[in-house]
Each structure stands twice: as structure tokens, then as C-alpha cells.
Prior knowledge:
Blueprint: E1 2-7, E2 10-12, E3 18-26, E4 37-43, E5 50-55, E6 61-63, E7 71-76, E8 81-86, E9 95-103, E10 106-109, E11 113-117
Parallel strand pairs: 2-11
Antiparallel strand pairs: 1-3, 3-8, 4-5, 4-9, 5-6, 7-8, 9-10, 9-11
Amino acid sequence: QVHFVESGGGLVQPGGSLRLSCAVIGTISGSIFSMYDLAWYRQAPGNQRELVAVIDSGGRTNYTDSVKGRFTISRNNAQNTMYLRMNSLKPEDTAVYYCNAHFGLRDYWGRGTQVTVSS
């Protein structure tokens, strides 16, 4: 079984920065961490969950337009951990952020960490 430990969320003023971490504990049967495509999603109150950033097993990244140039997704395969560095935060970035692993046609989710951007 696999589960996730997300951390790094909190309250920050507009223009501030946060770094989210997602430690993956355990493995999906027949696999290792480096094989997973990983992503961060977010969900604001009243909104659908949206994809924020993705990093595939080869290290290629992609971002939703609203965070390009501000957010950076990365992974450390030796530590089974994924990160999201968020700079120049805006109030509209306020949401619960979820880490996601995709492997073998299935998605696996963390419980989420709250990010609030407010003065």
C-alpha cells in the first residue's frame, strides 16, 4: 500500500512563498517511486479540483497557465519525495493542495494541505 505525507501549507501574505512537500510512503505493487508520474492538484471552495503541475517519471514538467513562472515542481527519487515551490503567491492561489501519483492506469491521492494567501 502507498500513502502520502503532505506538509508545508499555511497562511502567507500576497507576494510570499511556500514550499509544499509530499513524501510517498510505501510502494504501489510491482513498482518503485521513480516510475510514478506525479502531480499537484488544488481545490478552492466551490471549485472543481484542478491540475497545477505535473512531473513525469522522466522529469519532464508542465504547469497550468496561471502558475507558470511562479511555481516549480520537482522530485527527489532517492527520498521518495515531491515538492512544489510557490513564489509570488496570490489570493487566488488559496486552496487545498493535493499530491497525486499516477501508475498503472490508477491515481493515488494524498489528503491535502491548506494554502491560504491573505493579508
